Amino acid sequence: MIRERKRALVGVVGGILLANTGSYIWFPVLVATLGGSDSGFWAGVVMCMTYVGRLLATFCYEGVAARAGVRGGVFLGTALEAVALGLMGFTDGVLAYSVLAFFIGFGSGTSFPGLKNVLVSFPEDERPKAFSAFQMAGQVGLFGGALLGAVLADVELRTLFTVVFVFFTGFCLITSALIPRGGFGGAPDAADGRVPLFSLTAFKGIEVRGATRYFLLSAAFWFLSLGFVVGIPLHMDEYVPGWAPSAPFWITGLSILVLQYPLFKLFNKRFSPGAVMAVGLAGMTVAFLAFGAGRTAPWVVVGCLTVVLGEILFVPSFDLWIARRVPEDRLARAMGAMHFFRSAGNMAGSLAAGILFDLSRSLGVAGGNWYVAALLAAGCALACLSGRHSGTATGTDAAGVDVTENDVTQSEEAVRENV
């Protein structure tokens, strides 16, 4: 059994490495291409459709896993993603790209939870190392994909997406070959039809008493994060054409790899989660101001080195904040709510990034889109500071019940198991 888990871990880690590498090859190039040939709005629409697909997949994943098993669900998701990406190179027009982007997102939303389920089914003492390897592989894939994307930035889209298809085919094969059919905890049995193929029960977790405003803050963060992801390739094509559209992502990828653990450890020891989140958002504010005011290559580097503070500090601190605010018996619902609000922020951020980019150009306000993002990031940072004491180790939960240090520890462990 230990040997089987090692094989499965190799499959999961290798799969996410190949998936992130392939993803960061294609999307910066496609966004920049659409921004130049059509508009920032249509580039945002295409990226938004990937997140529409991912969100819809959350309502189907349980039914797919029940019928096909964990491995089968991963295979179907990655195969769908690979085929859609391959077809991207043989089509044209924003309508066709949008349809294919939906299937790319749906495939990702089906396969990614399956990979996480494999790791969650590991024995408790093996999970931290497994999730650490998973996260590290994702960051290495981001960095490698951005570098390869820079090399392939000037090739035809048909060639570009053929390379991406090869990566995702490898993703499909390695995960299917090495992970067990039902993980290590089994899969739901749909033989009697008790698990529907499509279910809206995920909506039940959206409202968590007393924590909704925190989820709205999370949605705002992911709105800003996707604003950067979609906005920076458009920015590079317009203001820094000498650099590849993916160049900012290898800067951010390398920065996260080097700084994530030591920086979060430093701040987490000294400040409450709310204060740490505020620092992360302040870094994003500085980055957006740098993108807007500078617009040249050196300012892009400065912005990329500071925008990563959001990923490094906000994301893990938000998990801790929720763990300290939501009682353990409501954490499962909180996980569903977190996913929903993240998806909503991703979709809105993708669209808004393209719209604001076009608007800033039409109004003749260079960098105006980044100023709007900076204003929102600063407002979110102030909101974090105003509620920073709610993240302390002792206090009351959303229903006014005393929370003990032991309760907090148990909640944090539950969150880590669900990440």
TrEMBL record:
Residue intervals passing through the bilayer: 7-27, 39-61, 136-153, 159-179, 214-235, 247-264, 271-293, 299-322, 368-385
Pfam families found in the cross-reference section: MFS_1 (PF07690)
InterPro entries: MFS, MFS_trans_sf, MFS_Transporters
GO cellular component: plasma membrane
Subcellular location: Cell membrane
Record membrane topology: Multi-pass membrane protein
Keywords: Cell membrane, Membrane, Transmembrane, Transmembrane helix, Transport
Gene Ontology MF: a single term: transmembrane transporter activity
PANTHER family given in the database record: MULTIDRUG RESISTANCE PROTEIN MDTH, RESISTANCE PROTEIN MDTM, PUTATIVE-RELATED-RELATED
Protein name, UniProt field: MFS transporter
Species the sequence originates in: Streptomyces actinomycinicus
Organism ancestry: Bacteria, Bacillati, Actinomycetota, Actinomycetes, Kitasatosporales
